[in-house]
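To the wet lab folks,

You asked to see what we're planning to order before we commit. Fair enough. Below is the target structure as tokens, and below that is the sequence we designed to fit it. If anything looks off to you, flag it before the synthesis order goes out.
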């Protein structure tokens, strides 16, 4: 049976605008949190309790997937508590630093113990800020980066470079106006493809035959066609049900 070829003018695209703040990223535990307080112990206890509660149940891929999601949810909840605690520590230390600065300025004379305490608080604040910056960098620019891992560093650079090439900073619509916002760019693409796929071609059928005539076309063999044309047997239906 001959199939009438249809003209394919364009290929579909997936458009990503430059504003990627709304994109969801995979959650990843920063190595710094694994050394913070009793976070590893709590995470280990949560996973152990979940598997003990479900001991003896039928194991399947779905149950294991739900178990991993439960453990992941517990880890994210613990991480949320650690982040809030870190923010609270920063606020407290910033208040202490401001108080020490005011005391030193009011006293006129710089006392050694005030300076030592001020340097200590500033170092604590710097450590917290650096850790927070490392977490944000890991979640954005360096999603595939680990400290000291050359392979991942190269992979992160390649992935970031390729990702930047997919950004669409602007596009012109059918009226010639330049669209640059995150809502206008997808709308311009959607309007263009709607017009492309709904347009009627004015090329005669013979032109397509001439264009495709010399191209090798894959065809089914005669024996394969006979197998496909046969009806479905009861054995095939039973075999399909038992294989589910």
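Sequence we intend to order:
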């Amino acid at each position: 049976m001959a199939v009438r070829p249809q003209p394919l003018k364009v290929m579909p695209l997936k458009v990503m605008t430059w504003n990627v703040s709304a994109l969801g990223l995979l959650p990843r535990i920063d190595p710094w949190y694994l050394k913070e307080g009793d976070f590893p112990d709590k995470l280990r206890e949560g996973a152990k309790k979940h598997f003990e509660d479900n001991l003896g149940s039928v194991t399947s891929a779905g149950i294991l997937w739900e178990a991993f999601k439960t453990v992941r949810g517990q880890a994210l909840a613990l991480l949320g508590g650690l982040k809030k605690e870190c923010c609270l520590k920063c606020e407290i230390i910033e208040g202490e630093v401001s108080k020490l600065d005011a005391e030193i300025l009011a006293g006129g004379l710089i006392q050694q113990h005030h300076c030592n305490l001020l340097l200590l608080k500033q170092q604590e604040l710097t450590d917290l800020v650096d850790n927070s910056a490392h977490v944000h960098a890991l979640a954005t620019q360096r999603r595939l980066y680990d400290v000291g891992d050359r392979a991942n560093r190269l992979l992160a650079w390649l992935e970031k470079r390729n990702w930047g090439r997919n950004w669409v900073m602007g596009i012109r619509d059918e009226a010639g106006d330049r669209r640059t916002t995150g809502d206008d760019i997808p709308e311009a693409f959607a309007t263009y493809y709607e017009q492309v796929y709904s347009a009627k071609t004015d090329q005669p059928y013979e032109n397509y035959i001439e264009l495709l005539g010399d191209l090798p076309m894959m065809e089914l063999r005669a024996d394969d066609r006979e197998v496909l044309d046969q009806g479905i047997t009861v054995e095939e239906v039973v075999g399909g049900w038992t294989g589910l």
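Structural context that might help your review: Residues 169-200 form one domain. Residues 1-12, 17-26 have pLDDT under 50 and may be disordered.

Thanks,
Computational group
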